[in-house]
Amino acid sequence: MYSRTVLVSLQKEIVACTRCLRLVQYRERIAREKRKQYRDEPYWGRPLPGFGDPKARLVIIGLAPAAHGGNRTGRMFTGDSSGDWLARALHDAEFANQPTSRSCNDGLVLRDAYITAAVRCAPPDNRPTRDELAACQGYLERELALLDRVRVVVALGKIGFDAYLAVCRTMGVALPRPRPSFGHGAAYPLSNGATLIASYHPSRQNTQTGRLTASMLRAIFRSARRGITRH
Prior knowledge:
This protein has eight helices and six strands; from the N terminus they run H-H-E-E-H-H-E-H-E-H-E-E-H-H.
């Protein structure tokens, strides 16, 4: 109960964050200008906390909210194609109750899974700066400290992968040698008892070019399911 209460408090703190001027200006400008197809919808336009099961054994770390996805809907991986790709894969592995992620009120429930990100505001061109990543790192550290049942971490994309490795170093988690390197499907057991699995991010840049296929993403989360079942 204590961890759940502190997690909710942390989520509220994240939503109120204004640390990075460039990101504040960008997320708010996108929320004002909107994309034509969403012009009649309100935009969230604020930082996004993680969401999911506070007792999760699986944590998914993405890059950042999409400008017209999470920055619009107010929930990570929601309202764009990346969200639907992820929801389908999670549903297939029984981590989600439905295969779509369209809005905060769509009924999506994560089971034994929690979704978070390296950066909490939509960055221009999906490219956060080193300082912006550093400013958000503390939030990820505190989330992971509260999610104390985690057995598998799936990093979607190299930025999410590197963000988790940075958190491990800060939190005193010993990394394998040689240092883990990003590659789709690569898995690394860590000294904290968790396994880190790398995956290509389900961005359009990857899914529309065939670099990441639906079967490839399903395989990642089936592997995650096997990983938490073994513990």
